[in-house]
Amino acid sequence: MCGIVGYVATETSLRGSEVVAGGLARLEYRGYDSAGIAVAGDSFALVKKAGPLQALLDELAAHPLPEHSCAIGHTRWATHGAPSDANAHPHVSFDSKIALVHNGIIENVAELREELAARHIALSSETDSEVVCHHLALAYAKTGDLSAAMGDVVTRLEGSFTLVAFTPDDPQRLLAARRNSPLVVGLGDGENYVGSDVAAFVDQTRTAIELGQDQIVELTGTEVSIRTFDGEPVEGTTYEVDWDADAAVKGGYPTFMEKEIHDEPAAVADTLLARTDDTGHLHLDELRIDPAILRQVDKIVVIACGTAAYAGHVAKYAIEHWCRIPVEIELAHEFRYRDPVVSEKTLIVAISQSGETMDTLMAVRHAREQGAKVLAIVNTHGSTIARESDAVLYTHAGPEVAVASTKAFVAQITACYILGLYLAQLRGNKYIDEISGYLDQLGRMPGKIAQILEKEDEIADLARSLKDATSVLFLGRHVGYPIAMEGALKLKELAYIHAEGFAAGELKHGPIALIESGQPVFVICPTPRRPLLHNKVISNIEEIRARGASVMCIAEEGDEAAARAADHLITVPQAPTLMHPLLTVVPLQIFACALAEAKGLNVDKPRNLAKAVTVE
Ligand code: M6R
After folding, report:
1. Each residue's pLDDT tens digit, 153-190
2. Closest Cα to residue 552, out of 487, 457, 478, 486?
3. Rounded to the nearest 10 degrees, how much is the dihedral formed by the CA atoms of 190, 194, 199, 201?
4. Which of 26, 262, 470, 573 is deepest in the core (most CB within 10 A)?
5. C-alpha distances in angstroms, 373 versus 287, 377, 441?
6. How far is CA 80 from CA 130, 134, 312, in A?
7. Calpha distance 136→93 (Å, rounded)
8. Distances from the Cα of 140 to the Cα of 135, 169, 511, angstroms
9. DSSP per residue, 532-549
């Protein structure tokens, strides 16, 4: 996790710290335990504070920095060492020759620490990052060449890292390096930038270069040169960022989460955009996997974590139904460390909003080593998972800043459905008119989601009435089952309430023992036009109400059986079964957000979490 920003210019001014502070504000979703900034020009200065970024900004307002030509900043999600001023970045070397920020985990830190102890170099923090900073200073002391020193040090490090460093001896130069952790370069006019992602500098420039695995970049205000850890020069490929800075701010909503829930109609619509040709055939230009290989696929394994994995669960129902290919869902961290059965005929679908989730990335690498093709469904352009997969289908949800995933989830389901329909088209499982019919249904979902958003106040009232609940259960059947699990996850992570999602059919096999008088239970009701499913869920409601549960039911408009059975009914517009998850999840997101707010919690930055989980 952690967010990193770097700035370097030809001129000395106060701009660097302003650019870095702005970048840190947009990167704060990556971690918010502490933040810091170091600058150099005619003089060197460092400020770092435990707590949210605002604590750092207050300190900077009280004690302005000197003019400078380079600046580095960091917002932290603690791995080694508790959140504290001392553990905050940037770190400064024992001889004050190096300032450094780091994202990732150095796995051979014990050995590196011992070497420092042997040289009597004392550590002032508990972090692995400080250890790297001193080693960089030792390497720099040998040659007086920071670039060479960075080259030496990175080859000694094991684990994952993005490093950005400068020396006050040469304040018009920044050095950065990455392995298994993201870094992008932004190209400005007389100044250049680096960041954990483009949000770091998107208000300054839209022209960016993605740094590849095991690469070092050296920047001045006018030059950027990239090389591999082996010293081979690399021609960086520039691209234009299609987000603007406004997309990464709240747009008038009190929280990012509320804004992002309201972005959901656009997230689905944009993800559907430009997928078909004039004849109505799906065209996925990004799919660089040979169609002959896709026709041969005999199993799909979805690898993902958290909410992204629940999107995969939903997709299983659709893809198996449309394509008759078995689909397995694997939590990426479980897939990676067992002995999964995959072959050249297995298609791995890696789903990730950030494209940086380390568990998912490791699983992608493992699957490719086994000979499987990997197709990534990713929201963040140029992210590591996107780059390391055989093909990418981008979701177009725009930047998701709130830690709890909302709009990315509906965009992921949409992208999975596009993939399923594409495979059905390619393999001849569905006729073109059938595929067009499903695409039409998907095309109507943004409007239906917008109708649910109009009920926000009613759902928020319900949430407020449950603000003192200590446990909430969620039940669903068929595609409602993963939505029940997602509803429970949202409530856990936002409102810190014990919540469980169950398959409604599993109720009698154990969970019903949890039901006692007043127990709040959300039930996701299937459409009454699927009576086989619907009747069973209505029976489940009767069973729990008979035992005292207070049932909140999410059901289609006009579902009279659900209206009779529920204590509280939230309706969603009518939709075909497979489209239901795009609707039924929305009230659950609003509910969790409103309940957390009623408890006075920060819904954008829940405790202990970070947006991009870039450590295993
Ligand atoms: O960036 P990713 O989609 O790979 O992230 C996966 C999970 O870490 C993420 O969905 C997490 O569960 C969210 N906090 C859920 O709201």
Report:
1. 999 999 889 999 999 999 999 999 999 788 999 999 99
2. 487
3. -10
4. 26
5. 11, 13, 30
6. 10, 16, 32
7. 8
8. 8, 11, 61
9. HHHHHHHHHHHHHHTTT-
- Global pTM? 0.79
What six digits make up the tokens of 190? 């007389």
- Nearest atom within ligand 1 for CA of residue 306: 12
Q: How many residues does the chain have?
A: 616
CA angle 155/158/159 to nearest 5° reads 130
| Mutational test site, ligand 1, from 257, 261, 353, 485, max ligand atoms within 8 Å of CB | 353
Q: What is the pLDDT of residues 510-535, one digit of tens each?
A: 888 999 999 999 999 999 999 989 99
Between CA 143 and CA 121 the distance in angstroms is: 19
How far are the Cα atoms of 218, 401, 482 from residue 36, in angstroms, in the given order?
22, 20, 40
**What secondary structure letter does DSSP report for 237?**
P
Distance CA 154, CA 229 (A): 7
Q: Determine whether 130 is exposed, middle or buried from the number of CB atoms within 10 Å of its CB (0-12, 13-18, 19+).
A: buried
Most confident of 132-146, 236-250, 427-441: 132-146
Q: Which pair of structure tokens corresponds to residue 541?
A: 């409601």
Q: Whose CA is nearest to atom 11 of ligand 1?
A: 306
Taking the CA of residue 412 as reference, the ligand 1 atom at the shortest distance is: 3
Give residue 395's identity as a one-letter amino acid code: T
Examine the residue annotation and report whether 611 is marked as an active-site residue of this protein: yes
Give phi and psi for 465, each to the nearest 5: -70, -15
- 317 C-alpha vs ligand 1 centroid, how far in Å? 21
Q: Residue 332 corresponds to which amino acid?
A: A
**Rounded to whole angstroms, how far apart are CA atoms 180 and 46?**
27
Q: What is the dihedral of CA 155, 157, 161, 163, to 10 degrees?
A: -70
Query: What is the CA(474)–ligand 1 centre distance, in A?
Result: 20
> 417, 318 in Cβ contact below 8 A?
yes
Q: Which residues have C-beta within 8 Å of that of residue 41, sequence separation ≥ 6?
A: 12, 66, 67, 68, 69, 70, 171
For residue 582, give the H/E element and its range.
Answer: helix 580-598
- Residue 43 backbone phi and psi in degrees, to 5: -140, 170
| Amino acid present at 188 | G
* Angstrom distance (rounded) from CA 45 to CA 350: 43
Q: Is the pLDDT of residue 385 over 70?
A: yes
613 lines ligand 1 (CB under 6 A): yes
Asked if omega into 90 is within 30° of 0 (cis), the reply is yes
378 lines ligand 1 (CB under 6 A): no
* Burial class of residue 274, CB neighbours in 10 A (0-12, 13-18, 19+): exposed
* CB of 384 sitting under 6 A from ligand 1: no
C-beta separation of 322 from 439 below 8 A? no
Q: Which residue pairs, CB below 8 angstroms and at least 24 apart, start in 119-125?
A: 121/94, 122/94, 124/86, 125/81, 125/84, 125/86, 125/87, 125/91
Find the mean pLDDT for residues 249-270: 88
